[in-house]
Amino acid sequence: MAIAAREITQGMATAAAAPYCAYCHGFGSRPLRFGKSVTCNCVLRGVFRACMRRYEEVTEMVGQTCGKVCLEVYQGHAKVALGYGNKNAEYRADVELTALRVLTADELALFKLHFLAGIDWHGCCRKLKLDRGNFFHKVYVVERKMGRALAEAGVYPSRTYFGGVFLETGQVGMYHVMGRAA
């Protein structure tokens, strides 16, 4: 399971921002009135795209082998927990369950066809009975919603999901595979 819910930090936003974004100019946040700022949509789409690239890599690994089962050690506030897990399968499940949780029925159908099945926009437009403009508008909405939800769920960045050190929540995890540190 992913780490606890968290906000998108300025560092994460800058890393995922599009360098030529017309709204944030690559800084990751757009100013609002009264001195407040909001995370730019290009950041949320970048987070989603990074997670989907990792999802595709994990899916290819699962097809080749059954994956590595790892011992996970988590140090919480007052106790230490041990458990076994397959991080590749957990990552896939986290992405798919996040989609089920945050997307509407129409958006979920688009997500399954376009992002999971890999059908291009021509095929999706035929199956979903959309024109080209509405299709790409819905794609951007799905990317934005999923990007925010994946970042808040702790799935992004994937190095903290798979790496074992969770500095944001104070948890430390180590993964051991057959007696060796992975």
**String of helices and strands:** HEEHEEHHHHHEEE
Radius of gyration equals 18 Å
What's the rounded overall pLDDT mean? 75
Number of helices: 7
Strand content: 15-25%
Ends apart, CA distance between termini = 19 Å
* Secondary structure: number of strands: 7
Structural class: alpha+beta
Contiguous low-pLDDT stretches (5 residues minimum) are: 1-5, 165-182
Mind summarizing the main beta sheet?
A: 5 strands, antiparallel
Describe this entry's structure for a reader.
Helix content is 52%, strand content 16%. It has 182 residues and is an alpha+beta fold. The protein is globular. It starts with 9 loop residues before the first helix and ends with a strand. It has seven helices and seven strands, in the order H-E-E-H-E-E-H-H-H-H-H-E-E-E. Helix 2 (41-64) packs across helix 6 (132-153).
Structure in a nutshell:
The protein has helices at residues 10-16, 41-64, 87-102, 105-116, 121-128, 132-153, 158-163, and strands at 29-31, 37-39, 70-75, 80-85, 165-166, 171-177, 180-181. The protein has 182 residues and is an alpha+beta fold.
Provide keyphrases for this structure.
182 residues; alpha+beta; two-stranded antiparallel ribbon; 7 helices; 7 strands; 52% helix; globular; disordered N terminus; disordered C terminus
Show the helix and strand layout.
Layout: H1 10-16, E1 29-31, E2 37-39, H2 41-64, E3 70-75, E4 80-85, H3 87-102, H4 105-116, H5 121-128, H6 132-153, H7 158-163, E5 165-166, E6 171-177, E7 180-181
Antiparallel strand pairs: 1-2, 3-4, 3-6, 5-6, 6-7
